[in-house]
Amino acid sequence: MATNDDLAQIDISTEEKDKLVAEVMRYALFKTHQTSGCPIKREELTQIITKNYRQRGLPALVIKEAGDRLAATFGYEMRELQRTRAPSNRSARTSSQQLSNVDAKSYVLVSKLEPEVYSKYVEDKERAHLSGFAFVVISIVHVAGGKITEEDLWHQLKRLGLNENDENHPLLGNNKQALELLVQQRYLLKEKIAGPEGHFMSYELAERALDESISSKLKEYISQVVGTSAGTAE
Q1: What one-character DSSP code corresponds to residue 94?
Q2: Confidence at residue 212, expressed as pLDDT on a 0 to 100 scale
Q3: Residues contacting 76, CB < 8 A, separation 6+
């Protein structure tokens, strides 16, 4: 929480600062809901603050306090994403949108509520299938060693009844778009790689899928599946 000395140095009143903090909080919550949890660029939050104010240290102060209040009021951590590494293959090409996602500092809202509380009071049950799809895809990529070709990924998904060219899935709608959303949400990194037989697309786990909160659940889930399979084999 900003002190009176902090505000005096920046030359802004407590009321003005509180109004900016509330605007940043509203934007973060709205954008998260509107974009199904895609990252929010720091630049977007900064523009809210600098629209009417030019004080140099103000954006950092307001964004930090907005994060603190989101945690205290709604149980959300406004987590800064670690930048995705650059493509490992020198001949790989990524889209300009992918590059901008890599370069920009951004945030995601992560619930710190207990799973039972989140499920009962916060989780949007109508979108639960998207979370399930994300977990399945991340599991497949994880088991493949953290990286998989697009062809192999769709081969595995097809075994689960998800076809690449299905644009009218009863739950997911357009299957390709559902997969692309995981790239936009920074669960997956998509690369175009040059191989001896031409170019091919590849997916690997991105920063949100590598987060400890996700990876620990993933390992627990996989161990349960392996344990169930072993029991069945016996």
Answers
A1: -
A2: 77
A3: 70, 109, 110, 111, 112
